[in-house]
Every structure is written in structure tokens, then in C-alpha cells.
Amino acid sequence: MSTAAPPEVQPAMKHIDEARLETDLPYRVGYLTEIMGMTSDDFAAIQESAEVLGPVVDALVDAVYEKLWKYDATQRHFRRPGSGFKQPVNGDIMSLDHPYIRFRKDRLRGYLVRLVRAFMTRSLCCTSTGPARFTRPRRARRRSKCRWCK
Fold first, then answer.
1. End-to-end CA distance of the chain
2. DSSP states along 97-143
3. Which of the four pLDDT bands, split at 50, 70 and 90, describes residue 140?
4. 29 and 114 in contact (C-beta within 8 Å)?
5. Burial (CB count <10 Å: 0-12, 13-18, 19+), residue 118
6. pTM above the 0.85 mark?
7. Domain extents for the chain?
């Protein structure tokens, strides 16, 4: 008589609103921090280093693209223009100095600057007056604190 192993129980899949990931930065950061398993200690370390990160964003963006460009598996994703780039492109993008790559770097730079500012002001996290926002809230509302502020 053979004993079969019980079937593995798979955890329920969590739905992620992909369209919202593109438009709601706090939602995107929450999603990424959950995937990476960030803790309140990680959040505090980022916040404490935000003033140091701000001035080096340009160097960080250049280093990220130089690293990504070294591998065929990552480089191929940048060799054809994606959404948002309006200039015509003839052929493959073969250089980090190409206008499309400069466009992508500018977008990453802007994203990182917003993140650093948000961490410096704790605007990605809850405050005593209401939810985090990158723009002023229409009216302040008292909300319970998020998992990092507890």
C-alpha cells in the first residue's frame, strides 16, 4: 500500500491593480515593499539616509543603467522605445547616450527624486493628519497609522 503525499496548499493569490501601479505612487511603493518584505527598520533606514541619497540620484541612475546595459537579458528591454517617448527611432538603440535612454534615465531620476522627497517628509507614510499624498489632500482626515508608523 503506497501513501501519497497530501497536495500542497497554495496561498490565495493577491490581486494587484496594475493600472493603479502606474498612477498611484504610494500604492506602488506599498506593493514593492510587500514583495521585498520590508520592515519598519528598513523604512527607518531609508528615511534616515534620504538626505544623503538626494544629492547622488544622478550618479545612482547612471550606475543602474550602466549595470543593466552590461547584460543582454536586461539590455534588450531598452533597445526598443516604450511608452511615452515621442521621437522617431530608426533601428536598435545601441548606446546609453541615445535620446531614448536619456528619456528613460530622466524618468527614473524624477521617480527617485519624488521618492527621496517623500521619505524625507514621511509623505509615503501616514501622518497624524491623514493619509500620505504627493499632492495636498483636499481635506485632512484622521486615519489609523500604517504598519510602519505603528
1. 54
2. TSHHHHHHHHHHHHHHHHHHHHHHHTTTS-BTTB---SS--SS----
3. very low
4. no
5. buried
6. no
7. 25-121
